[in-house]
Write a structure and sequence with these properties.
about 300 residues, alpha/beta, Rossmann fold, 2 domains, five-stranded parallel β-sheet, binds adenosine-5'-diphosphate
Length: about 300
């Protein structure tokens, strides 16, 4: 699973990323954390970044792109990753697209956590209070003044990425104002739907390959086709389960419904329910194709 989490400071990216790490055994790549480590170690990058970070500005694109490129090459990132805090500008997103292409890595989805700006200051204040209570060091950029600057740079530099990924059909929006648990459930539902669609694609590919093999051979053998059909059918069942729960969420009143209707204003945006339904559609088509192919024989 290869994901990007997108959202303003305090939207819950870090919390959700940690949960995804535990559930899926993938790594969290947080440029903020990496930069804070570089500052603590006073590496050349850390020295360059520290004043920019303290004031709430953005570190130059080439620095963060370089850090991410190196990090993606490490063995623990091969199983999957969650990018948290990167990309943060359109040039960073373009650079990431190029990097991924070069490294033959496919991005599965970009998950946007949508929150009301008015709640963010309170959230960050709570985080600071909790860190103090645990005796942890508080981030020097977690003050109301710097947060205002961080929010301003999010709005002007990072928010355009919503359009960027929506145009590329990668964006899925989750209502970040729900409870932590509910946000996690919603993200997991999205990931299940994506997984189902991938499975269908694979089953479809296998079925096509098997039928090509069969048509090359006379007399024909049906066993490969039967196996591929079973896989496609399994994918349909799996996707249907995901879509059923997605539909339930969309119908339910309240915040999830709000996200869905907001997303409807921008047709390019996918919702959890939409991707579930699409996954079912694709899976059904795949199963039909296999059945047709078998009937022809
Ligand atoms: P936030 O909670 O504000 O999202 P992060 O921990 O992700 O904060 O990042 C902290 C700071 O590190 C940012 O305000 C910025 O100065 C720097 N930073 C992190 N990631 C990037 C990036 N991709 N591009 C530029 N600067 C970054």
């Amino acid at each position: 699973m290869r994901l990007i989490l997108l959202g303003p400071p305090g939207s819950g990216k870090g919390t959700q990323a940690q949960r995804l790490v535990q559930r899926h055994g993938i790594v969290q790549l947080s440029t903020g954390e990496m930069l804070r480590a570089a500052v603590a170690a006073q590496t050349p990058i850390g020295i360059k970044a520290q004043d920019i970070m303290a004031s709430g500005g953005l570190v130059p694109d080439e620095i963060v792109v370089g850090i991410i490129s190196e990090r993606l090459d490490q063995p623990d990132a091969t199983k999957g990753f969650i990018l948290d805090g990167f990309p943060r500008t359109v040039p960073q997103a373009v650079a990431l697209d190029e990097l991924l292409k070069k490294k033959h890595i496919r991005l599965d989805a970009v998950i946007e956590l949508r929150v009301n700006e008015s709640a963010l200051l309170q959230r960050v204040e709570n985080r600071v209070a909790e860190m103090r209570a645990r005796g942890e060091d508080v981030r020097i950029d977690d003050t109301p003044e710097v947060l205002t600057r961080r929010l301003a740079s999010y709005r002007s530099q990072t928010e355009p990425l919503i359009h960027y990924y929506s145009e590329r059909r990668k964006l899925l929006t989750v209502d970040g104002m729900m409870t932590i648990e509910a946000v996690t459930r919603e993200i997991n539902r999205i990931l299940a739907a994506i997984g189902a669609a991938e499975q269908t694609k694979a089953a479809n590919k296998a079925a096509t390959k098997a039928s090509a093999k069969r048509s090359a051979k006379v007399p024909q053998k049906a066993s490969a086709g039967r196996g591929a059909k079973a896989t496609a059918e399994k994918a349909v069942k799996f996707a249907a389960r995901g879509a059923a729960t997605s539909r339930k969420t969309t119908k339910a009143p309240g915040k999830v419904g709000k996200t869905a209707s907001r997303s409807n204003k921008k047709p390019a945006r996918k919702t959890a329910a939409g991707s579930g339904a699409r996954a079912v559609g694709k899976a059904r088509k795949a199963a039909k194709k296999v059945t047709k192919r078998r009937a022809k024989r």
